[in-house]
Amino acid sequence: MFRVMGTIFVVIGFGLYVYSGLPIYQIPLYTTSTMPLLAFLTVLPWMNSVVRSGRFDRRINEIMKVNVDDLGKLYMRSSFTTYILCTFINLSALSFTQEVLKDNLAKMKKQISDSFISKSTLRAFALALAWSPMEIIVAITVDATGVSYLTYLPWMFLFSFIIFTLDSLWSKKKFQPIPYHSAGGGITRKVNPRNIMIQIFKLLLALTAFLVTVVTVGNYFNLNFILSVTLVILPFSFGWAILMKRWYSFCAIGWKTWKIRTNNLQNFVVLFLSLAFFSSSLNETPFLQFIQQPFLGASDQPLIILILIQMTYLFMSMIGVHPIATIGVLIEVLPPLYELINPVSIGIVLITGALATATVGTYGVTVTMTSMNTDQNPYRITLRNMPFALFYGAVGVLMGFLLL
Fold first, then answer.
1. Going by C-beta distance under 8 Å and a sequence separation of 6 or more, which residues neighbour residue 294?
2. Which of 56, 70, 243, 275 has the most CB atoms in a 10 Å sphere around its CB?
3. Which residue, among 311, 353, 302, 350, has the nearest Cα to 330 in the 3D structure?
4. How many other β-carbons are positioned within 10 Å of the β-carbon of residue 28?
5. pLDDT tens track for 318-347
6. Other residues' Cβ atoms within 10 Å of the Cβ of residue 71
7. What DSSP string describes 320-350?
8. Hey, is 20 helix, strand or coil?
9. pTM of the model
10. Keywords, A to Z (predicted)?
11. For residue 3, what are the contacts with CB-CB under 8 A and spacing of at least 6?
12. Contact 126, 391 (CB under 8 A)
């Protein structure tokens, strides 16, 4: 998928480059605009590693193994667990939580367990990343719209909280009639709730300190958000590991994780470099104006524009286009509208539209990973989560519309 997209971006980008009459020797300079994103992805595994070295993931996952007698209660707990962990360790949390649920639901019918896992984990994943400073879609949006992350934070957190609450209550009611019998005898396990709450509090305290540090560094050195997060992650992770007295564990886990993740970044290298070349070349031609016309034509109807952004994400995800590629084109098209429409509204829909696809993108990383972890058809996962994705996007559009 990434190879096909990269080839398309390079071929079209080269055509635009030649059309604009630019010298061939300057081509490398037109591939550098997305380098900060690659740097961001390169250091991100260290934040994941410090959480794992502190064993926060294992302690919080114990929530799912105690005093549960029906799937309704388990849904709320598994969603909450996935939500907390995904805020810090992203895809690693998704895989880890799905494996725990798969083991615990081994006695259930496969159709029920598949539906339960694909709904509870993917939905929580999409909601947790809506406000996470370590989510690349959020970082791209902050820099593209020129709006401070702190401006987005309360609105995106409110958005996340509202949908998480509604989905938990609805799904609890739906799954409640189904009794739960853990394959490992989960209902008899004793877990100290106080210890788990302490772990959650420590994570939230660390996240607050991280956000304060990122904002302070960005403001003091006048850096964009992506670069600020990139520069802060490594020293913050090392400092956190030292404070927890988990230095050796952190280094062992971090070095191994970093090597694996960095050596498997080729997909994003192909995507980001080709996307940068395409976007930079497009900006040198008048064709950008033609792409902007549908959006500019509806400039007097902001709601139509917000819906158009949302549906663009959904359509592109259905044909295998990664949301980062979609947002890469949209952020080149939308700037003229910032003077007519509140950029906060556009930014909210850019974030919610992209993350909604995490639950339904048949060829996307999250759906594919869930399909592999649970041995189920990815199209079935898409079908099960489509109502949620549409609701997710609709609430994002509504919130953006109310902030116009």
1. 308
2. 275
3. 350
4. 9
5. 887 888 888 988 998 899 899 889 999 999
6. 25
7. T--HHHHHHHHHHHSGGGGGTS-HHHHHHHH
8. coil
9. 0.87
10. Membrane, Transmembrane, Transmembrane helix
11. 270
12. no
